[in-house]
Design a protein that fits this description.
With 308 residues, this protein is an alpha/beta fold. The chain is built from 9 helices and 8 strands. The longest helix has 29 residues. The protein starts with 8 loop residues before the first strand and ends in a 5-residue tail after the last helix.
Length: 308
């Protein structure tokens, strides 16, 4: 029985390890010809190597699939273009791109340098743009295609010590929504996945995570979003952890206050707290939950017979 991606050509960035590798393998298993991109860098973006992309290509070919490696950085427009050009020149078309590539440079905001900021923005946000842009040229002409960007809870909630990463991931959400709106009339879709899975990067989440899945859990959702089964799905953000898939809301105004004419600062100071108030940061609830979880674990450990 043909897979959901039979006859399609898909490019996956950051596909040498972790979630990207699982996505590339799943796309091949679903029938796609795959461009495996991985610059092969360490988690902070250093020491590139092509061996990771080559190894995944070897896995796909050993299983009877078709794949080609591109060991190039998505942080340049030339790198993004070469990934798409490789798909078109090797397999004749490009039907889907999945942008997983990312790095981390964790710092508190007051300690963060330009050297910490720029590479993270370049790899995540510009790296998604470089591939989306190159692919959209072909997809517009062929009147079909699917773009999949990767964000995280940090991109929606913020982060204590990863302002660069959170800003990049929030930017990817806005970029992908904009792509969905701009390309809709050409039959091209764009969606976002926010995974929670055990990877090199997840080990650096400040305070840990309440839930944890595996990279292989994420791949089926991506395959679905790339397939014709999702032809009417665009501009959406889905999170996935283990066996749970969730739809995130679209930002909307939640409260307003009005007057005839222009507000003065004093009027705002008087009326806004009672009329509109504030909307609590979800991350604060998450921090409280994780603190309670740690406290309960410590109490249980202290009360266990082994601890006595």
């Amino acid at each position: 029985m043909p897979g959901l991606l039979a006859g399609k050509v898909v490019a996956v960035t950051g596909a040498g390890r972790g979630i990207g590798r699982s996505v590339a393998l799943a796309c091949a298993e679903a029938g796609a010809k795959v461009v495996v991109n991985d610059y092969g860098v360490s988690m902070n973006g250093e020491d590139p190597s092509s061996e990771f992309a080559d190894a995944v290509v070897a896995e796909i070919k050993a299983a009877g699939g078709e794949a080609v490696a591109v060991a190039d950085s998505v942080a340049t427009m030339e790198g993004g273009q070469r990934i798409v050009d490789t798909a078109v020149n090797t397999f004749g078309r490009i039907d889907g791109v999945v942008c997983v590539a990312g790095i981390l440079r964790e710092r508190m905001l007051f300690n963060m340098t330009e050297e910490d900021w720029d590479p993270v923005i370049a790899t995540h946000l510009k790296g998604t743009f470089s591939v989306f842009k190159a692919a959209s040229v072909h997809m517009r002409e062929q009147k079909s295609g699917a773009l999949v960007g990767f964000t995280s809870g940090a991109g929606m909630w913020g982060s204590i010590a990863q302002a660069n990463y959170a800003a990049a991931k929030a930017g990817i959400v806005a970029l992908t929504r904009s792509a969905a709106l701009g390309l809709m009339k050409y039959g091209v879709r764009a969606n976002i996945v926010a995974p929670v899975a055990r990877t090199r990067m997840s080990d650096n989440v400040p305070g840990g995570t309440a839930e944890m899945g595996e990279p292989e859990d994420v791949a089926p959702l991506v395959v679905y979003l790339l397939s014709d089964a999702a032809k009417d799905v665009t501009g959406q953000t889905y999170s996935i952890v283990g066996g749970r898939i969730s739809l995130w809301n679209q930002p909307r105004e939640i409260k307003s206050m009005f007057k005839d004419g222009r507000w003065t600062p004093e009027e705002i100071a008087e009326k806004l707290p009672a009329s509109i108030g504030t909307d609590r940061l979800p991350m604060l609830d998450y921090i409280d939950m994780m603190a309670a979880k740690r406290a309960a674990a410590e109490k249980a450990a202290a009360e266990s017979p082994v601890a006595q």
